[in-house]
Amino acid sequence: MTLKDILNKILWHPKYKKEEFELVILHRGAKNNKKVIPLENVDIKGSYIVYEDTYIPLHRILMIRKKGRGDVIYSKHEL
């Protein structure tokens, strides 16, 4: 399953609530070059996610995890 497939499943499948997930993205200049954004504030447009009017390429997503518990749903590589 691709990263885009996982995102679409979380966003559109009635079993999942996007409010329960967050993304860790590569964000140069942030602490440890990582930024956490809530999935409920994200839209998918082609090969990008859109967050606060900013287009972020999917390849910058490092991890998808559950809020609070931190269960990792997707990890690009060992962090």
TrEMBL record:
InterPro entries: MJ1316, UPF0248. HAMAP family: UPF0248. This is UPF0248 protein Metvu_1199. It holds the Pfam family MJ1316. Belongs to the UPF0248 family. Residues 2-76 form the MJ1316 RNA cyclic group end recognition domain.
